[in-house]
Every structure is written in C-alpha cells, then in structure tokens.
Amino acid sequence: MGASAASAAAFYRDVVKAGEVWTIRDAEGFPTSTNASGETTMPFWSSRSRAMAIIRGSEAYREFHPTALRLDDFLESWLPGMQRDGLFVGLNWSGKRATGYDSRPEDVAAAIAHQRGGIPRA
C-alpha cells in the first residue's frame, strides 16, 4: 500500500473512531485546489495534528488554522454540498506539496459507512 492509500485508510478509520473531521480555513474561508486531473478538491484530515502538519509544512497554507467538524455534519451537509458543487474530497493530504488521494464525496460517504459497520450515529 502506498503512502496516499495508507493515509486514506487512516482517514476513514480515525474519523469514525473520533467522530470528527478536520479542515483548515483562513479569513477568506476554506481552501480548494485543482489536482493534476483538473478536478477541484477541498482537503480534510482525520486529526488536528495532521491538519497542523500541513499548515506548518506547506507554504500555501501558512495563514490557515485548523477547524473541527462533527462527522455527522460532514456526512449530512458537507459531502452532499460538495457533490452538488462538483468538488472532490482530499483525504489526509501530506507533505510540502500537500498531496494525497482525492475522492468523490459519495465514495467517501460509502467508505465511512462501511468503516462504521454497526456503529450507531452520534
């Protein structure tokens, strides 16, 4: 399993365990980026420490701060909104270039549901 695949697997495992998802924002809002395939992606992380690593390690995100979202809000509001807007979900991006897996919102929702198994919603 490559680093991006391992980071994506950790994303699903960790957000279900913690019940929250992390993103970053600045005074202008939440960032998006265009990936190599031309898709617009919004990044999310499975922990505050992962989000902080991007803020500290990537020049593009130096002015951002971490923001926690309840997992249920992410599933019920954010992912459907991103799907409507044609945005992809960046999963646990890492490194100076802030790269990793970008997935469709409906695929992220399905993977989280699968990871939850029989875990009831909060």
Description:
The strands form 2 sheets. This protein has a 4-stranded mixed beta sheet with strand order 2-3-5-6. A two-stranded antiparallel sheet has the order 1-4. Helices cover 43% and strands 25% of the residues. It is globular, with a radius of gyration of 13 Å. The protein has one domain: Trna Endonuclease, Chain: A, domain 1. By secondary structure, it is an alpha+beta fold. Helix 1 crosses helix 4.
Give a quick rundown of the structure.
The protein is α+β, with helices and mostly antiparallel strands. It has helices spanning 3-18, 48-57, 71-85, 105-116; strands spanning 20-25, 33-34, 40-44, 65-70, 88-94, 99-103.
Write the layout of secondary structure elements.
Blueprint: H1 3-18, E1 20-25, E2 33-34, E3 40-44, H2 48-57, E4 65-70, H3 71-85, E5 88-94, E6 99-103, H4 105-116
Parallel strand pairs: 3-5
Antiparallel strand pairs: 1-4, 2-3, 5-6
